[in-house]
Structure formats: C-alpha cells, structure tokens
Design brief:
Elements lengths: L3 E2 L13 E5 L3 H12 L3 E5 L5 H8 L4 E2 L1 H7 L2 E4 L3 H12 L8 E4 L3 H4 L10 E7 L3 H9 L6 E7 L5 H11 L2 H4 L1 E3 L2 H16 L1 H16 L4 H10 L1 H19 L2 H14 L2 H15 L2 H11 L3 H11 L2 H9 L8
Parallel strand pairs: 2-3, 2-5, 3-4, 5-6, 6-7, 8-9
Antiparallel strand pairs: 1-9, 7-8
Helix pairs in contact: 1-6, 3-4, 9-10, 9-14, 10-11, 11-17
C-alpha cells in the first residue's frame, strides 16, 4: 500500500530559515510561490524580464531576479520551467551556483530520471508533484483546503531531504489532502504513459474516430460533436467524483449495458498491446530521446502534428457550437 503523509507528519519549522527560489512563474510556479509566501516561507522568483510571467510575479509583490541569482541566493531551488529547457537552465545558471547542502526540487521527474540533469552528490534532490493544475493548487489552498501531491527523494545528501520535501508539500497545501510517496522513476513513467495512452493521446484519438465514423455514416457533424465530444465531460466528471461505479450508477441502464458489452470490443487486446509498447518506449528512454531531439531540431514534426490536429473537422464544428454555450466562458 502507498504511504501517505498528512500535516501531522510534517515539520513546518524545517523551512523557517530557508530561502526558496522558484525558477519559473508559470502554472505551477505562481501557485507554489503564493502558497509558500502565505505559509510564512521566504520566496524568491526567477523569470525573464519582458515576459508576462515576469510582470505577473512583480505585480504579485515578489522579488524577481535571473535564474543564476536565484540559484546563488536560494537554499531550495525549485525548477518549474518546461521539461525541454530544464537542462539548459540547470547547466548554465543553477549548477555553477549550487552549494553543498542546497536542495533541488522538481514537480516532475523527467530530467532526473532520464539523466538529462545529473546533480552533484552534495545536494539534496527531491520532488513535490501536485496532482492538479497550478490554478487549482492555488484556489484550494486559498479556501483552506489542498490538492494531493506526490513526494519522492532521489538524493539525500543532508539526511534531511524527505523532511524538507514534506515541509514544502505542507506549505503549498498538499498535506491537507495527503502526500503520496513514490519514486522519480514511477512518477515519470506513469505520468508519460497516462498522457500518451489515455488522457491526451488515447482520448483525443477515440473522440476523432467516433466523430469520423458518425459523419461518414451520414449523420450531421453537429450531432456527432455533441455525442462524442461535448458529452464526454459529463462522463469524466462522474468518473472524477466517484469512479467507474458512480458513472455507471448515474447513467441510464441502456448506457451502462451498452458500455459493458461494446467497450471491450473497442479497447481490445490489440489496443493493450499497443499501450504496452508505448510503456516500453517510455521505460527504455526512447520516447524521451525522441522528444528532446524533436525540440532541439526546431520542432517541425511537432508543428505538423499540431496543424493536423487543428485541421480536423471536429475542431471547426466545435468552435461554432461552443458559441451557443455561454457557461463555458
């Protein structure tokens, strides 16, 4: 069984004399910085001048400096910039300014697990990964609640890495909901697998396939959109609230029976074989290498894929139908 930590398992005083340097004031960065400050922790933000995130951090009242200065001054350096630029920022700005006993913290294990970043042995390396987007991390904290987080320790140079990680997790509100222990390997591989096969890749491919089948059969695109795209949120919300059983309880008997009998014919053993292959490519590092090479080469194939997705007929139909839905805005 997974080990879960709550507020009673953390020691807030661990961060009392620590300066936290947040590298990147984006989705997660702004939430971490604000929550830490509200918890009484000293926070410094690193962002590039002239960017929206730089202006937002300044407007929020933070001292904003460059990444090298933040790394030099900070005790815990939190790397919250996109995966593909973490190595560059680490090598150029952070590594030369690290001191023995400092801590490096991540919200995703990609760069550590795939050895893009290999820290010196005299620093702690740990992870606090909220299982929610940054705006929700902030909103839940502000209302006195919290979002679940994952915690992992990759390197424990000081003997205090887990203690610091849990104190950090508590300071952003995670311990109010629960902080689940994992490893950098497990977090990275399961996260990539979920994104590729279910959350982003699998669900989008299934939606497009359903739309194509209905429109090819002569049904109106607008009706196809409602059935395979619009109503999906209703089902996902039921999953989110109470799992598979609550979804089946909430829909009609007709829908429940049809799901039981037809679903396994759509997601077949062949589908699972493809999913296992995707997991294997994640585990052996092939996907990470492919993605980093794609980014380094200018992302032409990435842009081609984006353009193809944007050109799918369901996007044009959906853009028009969503104009009818004032509640979305």
């Amino acid at each position: 069984m997974v080990k879960i930590f709550y507020e009673k398992d953390t020691d807030p005083s661990t961060l009392r004399n620590q300066l936290i340097s947040i590298i990147g004031y984006g989705s997660q960065g702004h939430a971490h910085a604000m929550n830490l400050r509200d918890s009484g922790v000293k926070v410094l933000v690193a962002e590039q001048p002239g960017t929206k995130n730089y202006d937002a951090a300044r407007e929020a009242g933070f001292e904003v400096v460059d990444a090298a200065t933040a790394a030099k001054r900070g005790d815990i350096i939190v790397i919250l910039v996109p995966d593909v630029i973490q190595k560059q920022i680490y090598e150029r700005d952070i590594k030369p300014n690290l001191q023995a006993g400092n801590s490096l913290m991540f919200a995703h294990g990609f760069n550590i697990h795939f050895k893009c970043i290999v820290p010196e042995s005299n620093v702690d390396v740990f992870m606090i990964a909220p299982k929610a987007p940054g705006h929700l991390v902030r909103e839940e904290f502000a209302r006195g609640a919290g979002t679940p987080c994952l915690v992992a320790v990759h390197q424990n140079a000081t003997g205090q890495a887990m203690k610091k990680a849990l104190a950090y997790g508590a300071a952003i509100g995670g311990a109010r909901a629960g902080i689940l222990e994992t490893t950098f390997k497990e977090e990275t591989e399961t996260d990539l697998f979920g994104e590729q096969t279910v959350l982003c890749g699998g669900s989008a491919a299934l939606i497009k396939a359903g739309f194509d089948i209905l429109t090819e059969a002569g049904y109106q695109p607008e009706l196809a959109y409602f059935e395979v795209m619009h109503e999906l949120k209703l089902i996902v919300d039921l999953y989110y609230r109470g799992g598979l059983s609550f979804m089946n309880y909430s829909v009609s008997d007709t829908a429940e029976y049809g799901g039981y009998t037809v679903g396994p014919k759509i997601v077949t053993e062949e589908t699972k074989t493809a999913m296992r292959a995707a997991l294997a490519r994640i585990q052996n590092g092939e996907f990470a290498k492919e993605w980093l090479n794609e980014y380094a080469s200018g992302g032409k194939n990435f842009q081609r894929l984006r353009d193809a997705e944007a050109a799918h007929p369901i996007e044009k139909v959906g853009a028009e139908l969503r104009k009818m839905m004032a509640w979305i805005k």
